[in-house]
Amino acid sequence: MSNQLTRRLALLDDDEHRALLGQGLRGIERETLRVDRAGRLARTPHPEALGAALTHPQITTDYAEALLEFITPAEHDIGTTLHKLDAIHRYAYTKLGDEMLWSESMPCELPEEADIDIAWYGKSNIGMLKHVYRRGLALRYGKAMQCIAGIHYNYSLPEQMFQLFSNSEGIPEERRSALRDFQSESYIALIRNFRRYSWLLMYLFGASPALSTGFLRGRQHQLETLSGDTLYLPYATSLRMSDLGYQNDAQSGLTPHENSLESYVTSLMDAVNRPYKPYEALGTRRDGQWIQLSTNVLQIENEYYSTIRPKRVIRTGERPVQALCKRGVQYIEVRCLDVDPFEAIGISVETGRFMDAFLLFCALDESPLINQMESQVHARNFARTVKEGRRPGLTLTRHGEEIALSAWANELIERIAPVAALLDSQHNEDGVHAASLAAQRAKIANPALTPSARVLDEVRALGSSAAFGLRQSELHAAAFRDSPLMPAEAALFDEMAATSLAEQAIIEQTQTGSFDAFVAAYNSSTLCGD
C-alpha cells in the first residue's frame, strides 16, 4: 500500500473525520431507448406527458429523440440514488403506453438512417442549439451511434475532505484559492488513476459482447457471426466501448492531457477552435438549414467522447470548460459503464458499492503524472479488455512487462479492500462494500460469472441479440407496470412535468435575438458575464 493511501486512510479512520465518508454525492444518468412491442425503435415524439426534454431536471432525451435519459438527484448514498432512479422508471412507464424501455446498451434493430429522428427541444435558441449540435453528431458519426445507451456515474467527495488532506499535506487553510486548486488537481489525479485501472471496470461490468448486424451500417469489422442478425466477439466484454462505438478520424488524435486541469482545458479548447478540413467541406448550413454548430474538430467540448470527465455544474449559457476554469472541478462523471440488462434500472446497488470503493481508492492513492507513452499503454490495456477481456491467459502491460489480467485484477481488489472496509465502518449496513468486492473476486476467478459472459450465454440460447434484448425489456416492463408509484409520488412527477412545459414555453416566448447571433455568441463564449 502506498504511503499516501496509508496516510489518508488513517486520517479518515479517525473518529473526528470518519463522517466525511458519508458526505460525498452520487448521481446516476441512465440512457435507454424507447421501443415498440416488437422491439423496434419507437418513431413517436418524446411523450409530452413526461414533460419538456429541454427543462425537466430528471427526464430528458440524449442524442436520438427515442433515447430517454433519466437523471437522479445527487444523494449521499448510492442506495438512495438507485431508489430515486427506480421511481423515475416507474413513473415513465405510466406515460409510455405500449412502448417499452430497451434493456441493453447496444441498440435494438434500427430503421434506415433517415427514419431515426434526432432529439428535438423546441424552437428556442437554446433548444435549437442542442438540436443542431445533434445534427452535427449525426453528420459526423451516423445516427446509429446516437442510439447507444450507457450508465453515467457522477461522483464527488466533500470539500472538507480536500481541506483535511491539504492541511495535512502542507497547504495553509487560509489560502482559499490554493484549496480550490488542490481540489481540482485531486480530481485530476483521481482521473489519472482511473485511466490506469478502468480496464477492470470493463472486465467486471461490461455487458455488450454482441450487437445486431444492422447497427454497423456496412462498416468494416472483425466481429464473428453468431446468427443471421447477430455479430459478436467470443471474449468481448463491451463492444460499446470498443472502436465500434463513438469514434471517428477527427477525434482519433485527440488525447487531452490529464496531468493538470489547465492542460486538460487547453487541449479541449484547441479542438473546439481547430478547423477540420472534411467538416469545412460540409459547412455549417445546407439548403438554408444549420447542419452543425461549427466545422472544427469538436463542435463543443462535450463532443469529446471520454470514459471519464472532470465536471462543474454550469450556469445558464455557460460552457463546461468556462465553469471548470472559473470555479474548478466539482465532481467527476464516469461514462464507460454499460447498461446491465439483468437489472431493471440498468445498474445494481452492488455495482454502485464497488464503484464507490474503486473511485475513492483512485482518489486516495498516489497518482504520478502520465506521459504520452504511458497514456498509450493505458488505452491499449482498456482496448484489449473490451474486446478480449475474458480470453484465457489474457495479459495487460504494466511497467513495461506483461501481467495476467486476472493476477493484476486480484491485486487491485486487495488494494481496494481497506478502502471498502473503511466505507463499511461508517455505513449503516454491515459489510456491503466488502460483499461487493467478494462478488468481483468471484468474477475474476470465474469469467462465466461476468455480465458479458452471462449475456452471451443468453444470446446463444435464443440465437439472437435482439431477441435477448426484447425478452429482458418485456420482463422489466412487466415488473415496473405491476408496481406503480404511490399517488403522492406520481403527483410530484406530474408537477415536475407541468413545470418543465411551462418553463419551456416561457423561454420560447421571452427570448430575443436570432439563432445565428446566439450560435456566434456561444462559439465565442460571450453568453455569460463572469
From TrEMBL:
Keywords: ATP-binding, Glutathione biosynthesis, Ligase, Nucleotide-binding. Residues 10-383 form the Glutamate--cysteine ligase domain. Pathway: Sulfur metabolism; glutathione biosynthesis; glutathione from L-cysteine and L-glutamate: step 1/2. It holds the Pfam family Glu_cys_ligase. One of its GO terms (cellular component) is cytosol. It comes from the Bacteria. InterPro entries: Gln_synth/guanido_kin_cat_dom, Glu_cys_ligase, Glut_cys_ligase. This is Glutamate--cysteine ligase. It is an enzyme of class 6 (ligase). Its EC number is 6.3.2.2. The keyword Ribonucleoprotein does not apply. It catalyses: L-cysteine + L-glutamate + ATP = gamma-L-glutamyl-L-cysteine + ADP + phosphate + H(+). GO terms for biological process: glutathione biosynthetic process. GO terms for molecular function: ATP binding; glutamate-cysteine ligase activity; metal ion binding. Belongs to the glutamate--cysteine ligase type 1 family. Type 1 subfamily. NCBIfam families: glu_cys_ligase. The gene is gshA.
